[in-house]
């Protein structure tokens, strides 16, 4: 039987590998921006469901209102501060895929900020995967699927943007491979570190991850989705939410 700490890392790596899948499609196929945005909206709905039905519910069960609210707000605050700093360094439009990418600020010169920004987007999600193993005794399939689905449009959108800005094949896929590995490591850390800590700390951390993910959705994924799908964004997001909800009940 495979040890749980190895499984935590593998599940995080699997979820992160969706970035590579999205990147491959964006690099080798010309996918309409409206399709990319629609998938982004769907992924946002899936993650919203995972936040509310998995992470926040588990956080409340472990630590009650105080830990849940504190962690949730703190997670959003941490992401917002880091994201604002990275935006000034050139990573503000890392998920954009439109024709005016270069004028929006994506170029070879800010590649480090883009890489760091993408890592920051994924770390809360990956840690949450490891934490679900602690709280449930087995990985939350709904959470893994939600993160996997949401990572595909991120790989699509970001790769389309940075390819338009002049990144070559090696630079693009080296970045996504690195981020996938970091995702696996973050999930492993989420399990290995926090399994030794009291329930109150795990409650705080689950809520912190949820707050960071929600802030990321509103700051990066939803604006990209709305930029192309407009009035359909809400409907597509709702469809993503209900699919994730169903998965959480049958998983």
Q: Can you count the helices? A: 7
Point out poorly predicted stretches.
99-106
> What share of residues is helical?
over 70%
Structural class call reads mainly alpha
First CA to last CA: what distance?
A: 21 Å
- Count of strand segments: 0
Shape by Cα distribution: globular
Main sheet? Answer: none
Strand content: under 5%
Based on CA atoms alone, the radius of gyration comes out at: 17 Å
What letter string, H or E per element, gives the SSE order? Answer: HHHHHHH
Summarize the entry for a quick read.
It contains seven helices and no strands. The protein is mainly α and 251 residues long.
Task: Annotate the secondary structure layout.
Elements lengths: L3 H25 L4 H59 L19 H26 L4 H24 L4 H24 L6 H31 L3 H18 L1
Summary tags:
single chain; mainly alpha; 251 residues
Can you give a write-up of this model?
This protein is an all-alpha fold and 251 residues long. The chain contains seven helices and no strands. Mean pLDDT is 83; it is low at 99-106.
